[in-house]
Amino acid sequence: MADERDGTFFVVRGPVEPGDKRGRELGFPTANIALRDQRGELGDGVWAGWAERADGARVAAAVSVGRRPTYYGADGYRLVEAFLLDFEGDLYGERLTVWLGKHLREQQGFGSAQELIDALGRDVAAAREWVAGHPADALPTLAALPPDGEVQRLG
Ligand SMILES: Cc1cc2nc3c(=O)[nH]c(=O)nc-3n(C[C@H](O)[C@H](O)[C@H](O)COP(=O)(O)O)c2cc1C
Predict the structure, then answer these.
(1) Assuming Cys at both sites, which of 21, 48, 142, 149 could form a disulfide with 127, CB separation 3.0 to 4.6 Å?
(2) What is the residue-wise DSSP string for 73-140?
(3) Which residue ranges does the record assign to the Riboflavin kinase domain (predicted)?
């Protein structure tokens, strides 16, 4: 798959929107960004990547792109949800830029919240491994910032 090639990134930028707050209950609060293009080149999946905050700080992330099939079947709207590693704080309203670097797995509809929590734990471990080999200062630079919610492909 082209998006698994090392060196290819997808970048999405946008303001962090309030989610269902379920992420907090699961132990994995996420920063949610609406995708303007509901189909597009970037398919659903789970990714390792980096999120850049408004002040330029870059935080490693495990990122979900999709419709949360565990809770919404196939009817949910697509969004980008970034779980920032080793981060605590309120990001609502802040504009984040998210680099998706490695496709980890497809979206799944889990039978229970615990199964989703277990999968998220594995995603975080896989994301940590990827970011260790792909430091934030080695990310490709953006020629121009993409409009909110639009996906830009780099490489
Ligand atoms: C790394 C990661 C992987 C995820 N994978 C899935 C998945 O496979 N299936 C799914 O239904 N939801 C997945 N999610 C989304 C969670 O269902 C969602 O974050 C949770 O329900 C909280 O939603 P909220 O942000 O609206 O509160 C994933 C989220 C993250 C951060």
Answers:
(1) 48
(2) TT-SPPEEEEEETT--S--TT-EEEEEEEEEEE-----SSHHHHHHHHHHHHHHHHHHHHHS-GGGSP
(3) 7-132
CA of 126 to the centre of ligand 1 (A): 16
Say how far apart CA 149 and CA 84 lie, in whole Å: 19
Phi, psi of 131 (to 5 degrees): -65, -30
Asked whether the beta carbons of 133 and 19 are under 8 A apart, the reply is: no
Ligand 1 residue neighbourhood (C-beta within 6 Å): 19-23, 26, 28, 30, 32, 46, 62, 64, 68-71, 81, 83, 107-108, 116, 120, 123
pLDDT of 2: 39
Domains annotated for the chain, with CATH where assigned, are: 2-154 (2.40.30.30)
32/5 Cα distance (integer angstroms): 26
Cα(29) to centroid(ligand 1), Å: 9
**Residue 112: alpha-carbon gap to chain centroid:** 22
Q: Sorting pLDDT into bands at 50, 70 and 90, what band is 27? A: very high
Per the listing, tokens 């990001």 go with: 91
